[in-house]
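Same chain as my last thread, 252 residues:
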Amino acid sequence: MNSIAAYEVRTRLLYSSRLGTVFLLLIDASIWLQRPDIVDFHHRVQPIPDTFIQDIYDFVVIGAGSAGAVMAARLSEICHWDVLLLEAGTDETFLTDLPFLYPTLQMSRVDWQFRTEPSDEFCLAMQDRRCRWPRGKALGGSSTINAMLFVRGNRKDYDGWRDQGNPGWSYDDMLPYFRKLENMQDPQYRNLPYHGRNGPITVERYAYQTPLETYLWQGLQELGLINPYGEVNGPVQTLQPHVELPCSSHRS
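reply #2:
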């Protein structure tokens, strides 16, 4: 069992115990008292009376995840368009804003609780050779249960879409939009050409840095996977030995 899986198991066992329940209640109370900006009670989504539901909409967006919510917001900027955003889940719990609590959100009401199909090649140690496949069932979608990580897709995935006959979907085509949505706060990366500074999504480092970070970087160095940019949203995500780094012509 790898360290991440072990952490999830230990955390899940802790929070399923009486002590864990008390601990969660204390966290809940502390957030209400110390971080009302996270709770943001007055700006939470409220139920809409039936009288405000229209019979006809110009656009219906299914799923209020990272993509659907943004699409609905952008469409609604046209004042004479009526946009309906449908989400099967509820509003997110403010516990999603605490990264180390993400294991408690899996298999909960904000998770679709999907499982992979049985396979002879992976999940071999799992029951019926099927792994959990956490996907968010809440406003915000899977971004509510991913420990608040901000990670772009891999360049090869986007370039693969282009190569399969989808012009405009390469990584270089998508990069301006990645930058447009981002408000990078970390001064180490804020002025780099792979990041934006005026977007609606604020990106910054966790205030607390685990001591394990040093050992993680040492392990990556031993495997030859050190990324000289120190992040996964730059020119490359991992670096194999003797791989030439791509150049970028983009400018902030």
